[in-house]
Amino acid sequence: MGSASAAGHGINITHDKAKDRHVTVYVMGKACLVPGDATIMGAIEYAGHQIIRGAGCREGYCGACATLYRLPGDYRIRTGLACTTLVEDGMTLAQFPSIPAGKAIYDIETLKPDVSAIAQTYPVVFRCVACNTCTKSCPQGLQVMDYVQAAKRGDIAQVMDLSFYCVACGLCMLRCPAEITQPLVATLAKRLYGRHLRKESRELAERVRQVEDGSFDPEYAELMAMSREALSQRYYARDME
Amino acid sequence: MYPEYMAASLRMVDETRARRLELAKKPEPVYPPMDAAERRAVLEGFHPDFKSDARRPVRVGPNRGDILTTEVAHLLESHSWLRPEQVDLSRPDFETDLLIIGGGGAGCNAALTAMKEHGVRSLIATKLRMGDANTMMSEGGMQAAVARADSPTRHYLDALGGGHFENKPELVRALTEDAPKVVQYLENLGVVWDKEADGSLQVLHGGGTSRKRMLSCRDHIGAMIMRTLMDEVKNHPDMIEVKEFMPAVELIRDEEGRCAGAILYSMDSEEFFVVRAKATLIATGGFGRLHIRGFDTTNHYGATGDGLVLAYRAGARLMYMDSVQYHPTGAAFPEQIAGFLITEKVRGAGGQPLNKDGELFVFPREPRDIEASAIIRECVQNGGGIATPSGRVGVWLDSPIIDLIHGEGYTAHHFAAIHRQFLRYDLDITRVPMLIYPSLHYQNGGVEINERCETNLPGLYVAGEASGGVHGRNRLMGNSVLDYNVFGRRAGLFAGEYVKNTTLAPLTLSHLDRHERDLADAGVDSELVTPILLPSYAPEDVKKRQLIRGGNVLPGSSVLRNRLHSDATL
What we know:
By secondary structure, chain A is α+β, with helices and mostly antiparallel strands. Chain A has ten helices and five strands. In chain B, helix 4 (105-118) links the parallel strand 3 (94-101) and strand 4. In chain B, helix 2 packs across helix 11 (368-380), helix 4 (105-118) packs parallel to helix 15 (479-499) and helix 7 packs across helix 15. The chains are: A alpha+beta, B alpha/beta.
């Protein structure tokens, strides 16, 4: 959601103001009247805050805007990304832009893609009590506990697959009673998979060799010497796969 | 859910799908691609860059007299945060060999490469967190000519044609020739590429590609690469120092005219710090958050074109800053995600743009500026658009056809992020199409560089979206992910080499005095203080009340007050 107006699209359609509905949300404890169809991030900004921590990509990829909230008459603590979660009337919310977690330092080359890597870097994983709170708190709907269990078994491929869409907002580790740092484990597992468990591409190796051998030098030289007209001709005549 | 009044149009999309599926199964294009004359006509008629007030001459600086995007010209004709006479340059707060401004893909690559190739230490200063960058958000893919049917020279010709033959040839050669090596390098760092069963890389088409060349990591390539690079940077705290929430607000030069570091600003304490550096890399990304021509943007929160301002005031020349890339497919509904990126990979996989009658009106994989202009034409001239309840307009992007082409489950697996995004609003894109409209996406131009990432200012390097020349006036899909990898690494390589033989003279900010004189001489009357750092999304009435309390906006006053300028000032 931005400040940009639909007018920038060159077409004007009258906005039906009568349909606007406002709700009350409690931003870090303070009541604010905001549009009923706002995202949490939009509501915080509507209330006049300049967010410095707590907004990043604003589209659900970066994990900067982890938010906890409760709804009236409901004891449960809910979680969401402020950029994509809609407000509800009576919502009380707080952002958690940074959640403490100690990243392990390692050399991806020398780690082995099995349980030994987990034991060396994030042994806290073995404290998992399988309570499933992490999974319930994931705004991406990932099976977090399942990947923690896979990490305990050293099944790196499964950790990679189950955690593929982790945005590292950290809400799981905030809620985890075993104090596990799940997003860090997810990043490690993906790197281990990419580095050590991938299937090699023969054609990639060949292509890199061709480039290093200068196989394309003559054609580059020819193209770079061509006039714009000649290039244009060749471009529009090129065959398409 | 879509509003009831769209039901008739949605029904027509359903009705035409079987016929369009037949077209998609044939080897010929589903709609005739445009030739050179048709491309020119749609661009000049409908691309936002061609509106009469979209560009104007800039009155000061190295590009004085050049026609630039209007908002960019405003940005360059603005004041510094600093009063140079109050800055003590004789005792720098930090010293480093290589200062990297920006903690996105280009910056991380440069730091890692300078370390690995030259043993050079660097300091990364970034406005928000590391990885708060457009790099994090790219969805669809990266171009690299790795398939046997393809070649780097074909990639070269495609990129040049997409850029209307205005790209700097030596930059396009570097881009396309380094690409296969970049794939290997990223894989060795642990990037998980989509692969075929035999281990070869999965390739798809993108707009303007003549061979299938788009590599992917499902629809999360940016997050995959960014998190890998950040993790590796953080594995070397002794060689790479990272300062978050510390944007640069001005470059420093030495008395021999070289770039010699920057002034950083703490977003928390509002202090300024002097960094002395033998070489400086601008890797600050693009400018989507300037909301050029009022467009929504796909860009991250901090994309305010800071690097352009810094480099320009220090004397660096810009290239192609008269051209803006609008991504053809930004979300137009629901309102909460307006402007969000819908990856071009959707069309690479067979997704089709359709008008309100459910009919094709453009080849789905034209280069971006052409495709975006054709969508605008369909809405503005042909009346083929669908209006949204909040006053936007868009056309359909038929996604249900993708599973019909590739088999059930394909969309859920390969487009999981977008699928999830729309499901939050009860829209299942495997069953209903998305409503889309072009969204402000990419800064085609930037600070002019050569293939070593050097600028006309010695000691200043630029890489990634902040640079200009690689893409001409129109970038193709998948060439920006490639760009920040190729040129981020090159910047680390060549800047790392440069610092070894450089001894700095005393530091100066005299270029700021010269800039102020130039503004006065040109009769520029501007209250704007830049870099912008962050946009303000407070409602206008809130901004007005904030300004009353804040008093006059003076250079050097708080960042908060500067941000209160309404969008109209920009």
